Amino acid sequence: MNKYRAVGVVGPGRMGLTLASGFDRALPSGEVFVAGRSPSGIARLREAVPGASVVPLRELPGRTDVIVLCVRNGDLPAVVEELRSGLTERHLVITINNGLPLRLLAEAVPGPVAKVIPSVGNELGVGATLLVPGPRLTPEDAGELLDLLRAFSTPFVIEERHGRAATDLASCGPALVAGAAKAMIQAQRDRGASLTAGLAEDLVAHSLHALSRLLDGGARLDGVIDRVAVPGGNTAAGLDASRDDLVAAWRAAFAATQDNERSKPAPRFGPEAG
């Protein structure tokens, strides 16, 4: 039996909602608990995850085995301080924040720590999650956490140093690809295409759906390109013309995510927090 039988999610923002929905799929009814300071956030969670129980933050350690911190760096010290009196060596504390080194979190809590980076598809039981094992998380405990994550995602174990790059592709990826799809539509409109906005979006959506199905069936990206981009054909010409600009655009996007993450200092716990 999995030792992690109840999960608490702190801070039901967008990623908190995603993980609360996912864990609600993975656990028996009544074993997902949430705590937050925002009444609007709690209201959204009650609507999205009606099976989750809303409890005061200080009660989470007494009700759960796993506590997932879905709060900003600046709020983490106060949240950990409020939880600290109830935390024991049995509690697994998880952060979703790439900007928080796990060694710092491990110094602030008595039990094992880890990072879990969700993606929006987890709400539907699909998409990747990234797991970064931290101090005191045993291989056996990591295996049990992976079992939970598999109930609503495809988990990948990564090293902490790869967190930013992997998050760009797995967690930011759906929004970035959706943004690229919108740019495709805008480019056609800029060229004077008479397609309605709704029709253009439907066509792109079906292209993305077809690509997803092909990849889900075992195809690789190069294989899809080779199947469509016949040498000398229109698709091949389009790929050749756009390749350099697309790479430059993605480089700029990933540089921006890295710069934004670095602009937020890591939190300080304990006496230094004030």
Strand content: 5-15%
Overall, the morphology is: elongated
Oligomer classification: single chain
What's the alpha carbon Rg, rounded to whole Å?
21 Å
SSE class? alpha/beta
Unreliably modeled segments: none
Give the N-to-C terminal Cα separation.
42 Å
Strands, total number:
8
Number of helices: 11
**What is the residue-mean pLDDT, rounded to a whole number?**
94
In sequence order, what are the helices and strands, one letter per element? EHEHEHEHEHEEHEHHHHH
**Major sheet size, sense and barrel closure:** 8 strands, mixed
Topology of this structure?
Blueprint: E1 7-10, H1 14-26, E2 32-35, H2 39-48, E3 53-54, H3 60-63, E4 66-69, H4 76-84, E5 92-95, H5 102-108, E6 113-117, E7 128-133, H6 139-150, E8 154-157, H7 163-170, H8 173-190, H9 197-216, H10 221-228, H11 234-262
Parallel strand pairs: 1-2, 1-4, 2-3, 4-5, 5-6, 7-8
Antiparallel strand pairs: 6-7
Summarize it:
The protein has 11 helices and 8 strands.
